[in-house]
Amino acid sequence: MSRHIVLLSGSNRSNSQSLKVAKYLRDRLEQLGLCDSGELLNLASSRLPLWPEEDIDGIWNVQQSILKKATALIVISPEWNGMACPALKNFFLYAGLGELGHKPALLVGVSAGLGGAYPITELRASSYKNSRIMYLPEQLIIRNVESMLN
Fold this sequence. Notes:
Structural class: alpha/beta
Distance between the termini: 33 Å
Helix content: 25-40%
Shape: globular
Radius of gyration: 14 Å
Number of helices: 6
Strand content: 25-35%
Number of strands: 6
Order of helices and strands: EHEHEEHHEHHE
Largest sheet: 6 strands, mixed
């Protein structure tokens, strides 16, 4: 069975620390042979419109096909004032059972300081209801991220 892992960089910002962490994790998974392929979804470069009806460029269709092929996910969430960022919250308004249902997922919190736990708690509480994503009981928190994984 193929092990295709999708890494979701949830930051709105281009060249974000979340993207740096996602690239590092993808490369590490491949180096260690823990997946057959790792695919990166960067919400900063493929922005979803606020409402699904406005997706005239088909950005969601592309993301949807990538997610349907995934056997597992890694969801990287930056902390913005103690919350998950808007792009990631908006993503989970789009994603449902067909894309994420019953797929294992690792949550990764990213913080410029000593935080990073609040977005993970927020996503565990709200993002699984409609998508039925299966978060692993453990998570990663990368604190002081600007000095890590460089």
